[in-house]
Amino acid sequence: MAENVGATVEVLGAADTADVVSVLCETFADDPVMGFVLGSPTGFAARLEKLVTFFVMARVLRDELVLGVRSSEGLEAAALVSYPGARRSPPELGDRREELWAELGDRARARYEGFGRAADPLTVAHPHLHLNMIGVRAAARGTGLGRAVLEAVHDLSKHDSGSTGVSLVTSRASNVSLYRHFGYDLLGRADLEEGFSVWGFFRPDGER
Predict the structure, then answer these.
(1) Reduced to 3 states, what is the DSSP secondary structure of residue 181?
(2) CA 203/CA 206 separation, integer angstroms
(3) What does DSSP say about strands 165-170 and 129-136: parallel, antiparallel, or unpaired?
(4) Whole-angstrom distance between the N-terminal and C-terminal Cα of the chain?
(5) What is the value of pTM for the model shown?
(6) Is the torsion defined by CA of 192, 77, 177, 202 positive or negative?
(7) Which of 29, 92, 169, 176 has the fewest CB atoms found within 10 Å of its own CB?
């Protein structure tokens, strides 16, 4: 995998699930979408861990991409990447999905599906990689690890004949200028009922 600012981005597997979940939960603990889906702060951390674990296992079970950067302290950054429409979901994933929503409740499921409907128009039709989640531990932020992971995803898309670029969605307004800096084009914005917005981006392959 790609190397950047002294960091080696590697492909992770099922054995790394707990570490990936830890990094992403730390990153998304105050994310507006997670707050929207999961609701009350009571028991929020435990529910967030269940949701993120499902997201990670979905990539593992569909043989998609889980990327990460390690240091001597352990896993410092992680990302989940999918191939929209290119992978068949095994029955185990469907079982895990139903178990998840049975634990989190109908309200959380309805809100998650509502977020999906809002974000659905903020994408492109042609084949591409989708960056589902990217996170860096708080202690490692500002060290270039996020850039290293992003550039690894861009490189993967560029060398994949079935991909035309990379898409992502963010619910943080501060990320809009950040992703534009990395060559992403803004596809649009959707406003959700809790008074926050999500932005969709696409970065076509090629020199930007």
Answers:
(1) helix
(2) 9
(3) parallel
(4) 21
(5) 0.92
(6) negative
(7) 92
d(CA 106, CA 113): 10
Least reliable range by pLDDT among 72-76, 144-148, 177-181, 203-207:
203-207
Cα–Cα distance between 85 and 166 in angstroms, integer? 14
CB distance 149 to 24 below 8 Å? no
Length of the chain: 208
pLDDT tens sequence across 1-14: 544 446 899 999 99
Distance CA 118, CA 194 (A): 13
Are 66 and 20 in contact by the 8 Å Cβ rule? The answer is yes
**Measured distance CA(34)–CA(137) in Å, rounded:** 17
pLDDT digits (tens, 9 = 90+) for 30-57: 999 999 999 888 899 999 999 999 999 9
Report the side by side order of strands in the sheet with 165-170. Answer: 3-4, 7-11, 65-71, 74-82, 129-136, 165-170, 197-204, 185-191
Find, among 72, 79, 62, 102, the residue nearest to 16 by Cα. Answer: 79
Q: Quick count: other Cβ atoms within 10 Å of Cβ 151?
A: 17
User: Distance between CA atoms of 30 and 38, rounded to whole angstroms?
Assistant: 11
Q: Determine the Cα–Cα distance for residues 105 and 183; give it in Å rounded to an integer.
A: 38
129: Cβ contacts below 8 Å, ≥ 6 apart: 65, 81, 82, 83, 153, 156, 157, 160, 163, 165, 166, 167
Inter-residue contact 169 to 199 (CB < 8 Å):
yes
